[in-house]
Amino acid sequence: QVQLVESGGGLVQPGGSLRLSCAASGFTLGSWTMSWHRQAPGKEREWVATISGANENYADSVKGRFTISREYAKNTVYLQMNSLKPEDTAVYYCKAAPRFGLRDYWGQGTQVTVSS
């Protein structure tokens, strides 16, 4: 079965850094499109970053601060978050979109809180 498990969230001060992990099982990352999304209380879920093949794309709000990457040997996707702002506070979700798949898969989410 396909499963995505996020980890690495927590409380960090503004300007700090966190690295989120998305451990995938039931499939191999190669050829899948992997994304990070986030949702703050009372707000719509928004797209943050995507890695598809060799291509990476980022929302304007995180461009230059966040980096999405894959570690194929561990079948894990990461989101390195630097220069964090209070506006980054949200639950962060990992999404997997299989090539030629019928549906997308989502993880349970991990809480990121940026506060002094």
What brief labels describe this structure?
globular, mainly beta, seven-stranded mixed sheet, 116 residues, 11 strands, four-stranded antiparallel sheet
Report on the architecture of this protein.
This protein is mainly β. Helix content is 0%, strand content 53%. The chain contains no helices and eleven strands. The strands form two sheets. Strands 2, 4, 5, 6, 9, 10 and 11 form a seven-stranded mixed sheet that branches. Strand 4 (33-39) and strand 5 form a beta hairpin. The chain is globular and about 40 Å long. The model has no long low-confidence stretch (mean pLDDT 95).
Number of helices: 0
Low-pLDDT ranges: none
**What is the subunit organization of this protein?**
single chain
Structural class by sheet pairing and helices: mainly beta
Concise structural overview:
By secondary structure, the protein is mainly β.
Record the SSE blueprint.
Elements: E1 3-7, E2 10-12, E3 18-25, E4 33-39, E5 46-52, E6 55-58, E7 66-71, E8 76-81, E9 90-97, E10 105-106, E11 110-114
